[in-house]
Amino acid sequence: MMFFSGSSSKSPWPPTILLFLFILNIALVSSTKTTTSTSKISQGYSLISIEEAPNGGLIGHLHLNKKTNIYGPDIPHLQLFVKHETEDRLRVHITDAEKQRWEVPYDLLPREKPPKSALHKSVAGETGEIPFLSEKSSAGSELVFSYKSNPFSFAVKRKSNGETLFDSTSENSDPFSNLVFKDQYIEISTKLPKDASLYGLGENTQPHGIKLHPNDPYTIYTADQSAINLNMDLYGSHPVYMDLRNVGGQVTSHGVLLLNSNGMDVIYRGNSLTYKIIGGVLDFYFFAGGASPLSVVDQYTQLVGRPAPMPYWALGFHQCRWGYKNVSVTEAVVENYRKAKIPLDVIWNDDDHMDAAKDFTLDPVNFPRPKLLSFLEKVHSRGMKYIVLTDPGIGVNESYGVFKRGMADDVFIKYEGEPFLAQVWPGPVYFPDFLNPKTVSWWTDEIRRFRELVPIDGLWIDMNEPSNFCSGKCKIVKNRPCPGDPGWECCLDCTNITTTRWDDPPYKINVSGVHAALGFKTIATSATHYNGVLEYDAHSLYGFSHTIATHKAFMSLEEKRPFILTRSTFVGSGHYAAHWTGDNKGTWENLKYSISTMLNFGIFGVPMVGSDICGFYPAPTEELCNRWIELGAFYPFSRDHANFYSPSQELYVWDSVAKSARNALGMRYKLLPYLYTLNYEAHISGAPIARPVFFSFPNFTESYGLSTQFLLGSSVMVSPVLRKKATKVKALFPPGTWYNLFDMTQTVIGRGQYATLDAPLHVINVHVYQNTILPMQQGGLTSKEARTTPFSLVVTFPSGASKGDARGKLYLDDDELPEMKLGNGYSTYIDFYATLNEKTVKVWSDVQEGKYALQKGWTIEKVTVLGLDGIGESLAVDIDGMPVSDMSSAEFSASDLYHLEKLEGDTKKKGMMVEVKGLELPLGKKFSMSWKMGI
Ligand SMILES: *[C@@H]1O[C@H](CO)[C@@H](O)[C@H](O)[C@H]1NC(C)=O
Ligand SMILES: *[C@@H]1O[C@H](CO)[C@@H](O)[C@H](O)[C@H]1NC(C)=O
Ligand SMILES: *[C@@H]1O[C@H](CO)[C@@H](O)[C@H](O)[C@H]1NC(C)=O
Ligand SMILES: *[C@@H]1O[C@H](CO)[C@@H](O)[C@H](O)[C@H]1NC(C)=O
Ligand SMILES: *[C@@H]1O[C@H](CO)[C@@H](O)[C@H](O)[C@H]1NC(C)=O
Fold it and tell me: Is 465 a catalytic residue?
């Protein structure tokens, strides 16, 4: 022990409320005397000093109260670091005061470093020497930090309403301990009010929907476990949750990130939550959030990285499968989509194009380069794109250039000084160590070489949990075919590794739902990365580091916005890539689960997400595939993908599915300007593209667990059919008028209750909320084609209202540019406004940087206003403030609206849809139009 002396142990703040202190003092005395509960594994720590740190934070020192031996020896001295990093963000970092511990690397996830453990004076007498309670908040900060000194605990409160957001105090009656901090076991808990609604903690398939369910297991450790598995640690690691509270109609939401890459079990009991982590440090970030859940995602992504901008085509439809055997088969798929008149933007190959499943190669027989190039020329000439798969495992093969160059550069993860041998699709493989800068350069070079071979438009990185078909220490067996048949059976000769405490830690997290060994079917946890980093610590960062390396490669090779799809994700992955939910099953249950997982990823800052449409395996029924494309057409990332062993499930395979696809994807392609604007909003503020309904209606408690419907942006609601043979759907409608996007005269007056909607096989219910201006185009068979068509605006007022306001926005840019931003001369941003007042309807725009939109020649040809009481007359239009005198081409038309449910007590107000057609308003110029409402 090496505490040094010299600093004061006095609190730098004036004493807070004395009475509180007094009460607390008593509580402290009684609780330290009676902590005897046997289920608790610790008596915690005591805070022996606390002082202001030079950079504006607080540094405290903790001494262990009493040793225990369960899960290994305790760390005797801890350093606490607390800082209000922004007005909305509070960090609480606790680590060993004497030794450097593993943390998520600061170059991988850039953030402020806490001060080095400045070893600190030991305080004689310890407890009682420092104030029992102190509170710390910074000017403007919404979060207040407070602590109790013995046993040490801390709380985070919201300044504006005094509410406690996090409180790690353990009372006698609590089923959890005070702080436990051992080398391989860290435990900390928080109490929660019973009515708090929590969301997040993934990746996991949640059978109970988006809202965390008490006593469901939440284990976080990346694993090649498919989305079919419920309540299990899946491909990604996101130890973050959002907490939504509604006290008497006053709603607040906040976020809590525990930035730690080690495996953990999170136990949610409804009124408390406990983290049991097998390494690293406690690095908590509390996000104050606010009245809107969007504020939580905004503050979260401000720290972990704003979602990546997507190229426009990425929002189009994607078709993939494992088993497009050759170029001709792949080409036929593209042609069949065209013949069936179903939109398609991107055609994918799984590993079929590869030579013996080796990354960055082409099968000389089935994917000969000249043939592939001429196919891609056709694809590209239509404005379509091509993406292929790669896996991180590099085939061990002395005649394979990628492998040879990797060996020469020494890029692979090591075990006992040798590259760690594993097996994936090519047979024996080594795993590149993306924490090593040399690996990143090698990977960039391999991508460069491959792009010279094949002009791919993006990259799919799969199996990066990483997945290994074997476990432990393996050898290649001479004369045994490897891969064997089937290719996913281990064909190496392996022995389990149980020799170190990393392979066999004292506390076993619930890996794969069966407390599997940490190294089971992945890299051995005692294997090492660059600089001696243990796989034990860095395991869940593998996919993240792979993603960053891939992104870096694309950014350095071409001045173009990259598109990367990754299976394994970590905190911050959304800054670089899109995600799909991995292998799912073609069942009705899986159709439903896809919504919760998609919504979770929005909260995780990975808004570009979707599930395999029609299911990865086995064969879906025709009916299921109909319903799946109706839902999947509204996933942010919309891709049909299937297993090698499944029969074809492209959308044209069944006439009925083709019809549903034309309908649903037809609407998606009309909504592309809206989706692309949502992509921009995600990029600047973290706002999820697909959101839970409560995001727009945070005080509407009925929607807190709603997992069968969702919103795109703030006001388009998708209510899919999720049950076999159903021809109606019960959908929850928050209060207000909702207009059916497929037939805007069909309205629902939401009263906060479920309404039964017709939903025959080819119908997907999509509604737009009142007070919205939705920019749309006319669609097309590719996004490129759709993007050239004229715009229309859909303006929604509350049905029959005499007064109303509506707003909307539109972002446009050259989507090939790496950055998505205003101010570069290649983008335009437009706010749309509309008012209804004293029988006058007014619609206008405010344009920022209109030049780009003008160059593109985009115009608005139609404005549809919903909810009015009468038709229009005396239309007046201004462009850039100048009245347009000749409006002879513009014409009004009007239709009645039909309400699914009549307005209560006011059945006479029926409302109208008024359309103004024949307009030619340049999108890049401010316009204003108004008319009087007739009868
Ligand atoms: C919910 O919020 C809206 C708008 O902020 C308000 O009009 C409404 O009265 C609130 N409802 C409840 C139940 O508090
Ligand atoms: C491509 O594969 C299909 C399906 O196996 C086969 O019928 C066809 O002959 C192949 N075409 C070429 C050019 O190899
Ligand atoms: C190495 O790759 C080549 C080319 O694909 C293949 O012919 C050979 O069988 C592979 N060797 C091994 C040992 O897998
Ligand atoms: C290795 O461990 C796995 C599970 O972790 C177990 O199923 C298997 O039997 C073990 N193999 C040997 C040879 O002990
Ligand atoms: C481990 O996870 C599985 C799968 O969710 C679950 O059935 C089991 O109860 C969990 N075990 C514990 C101890 O939580």
Answer: yes
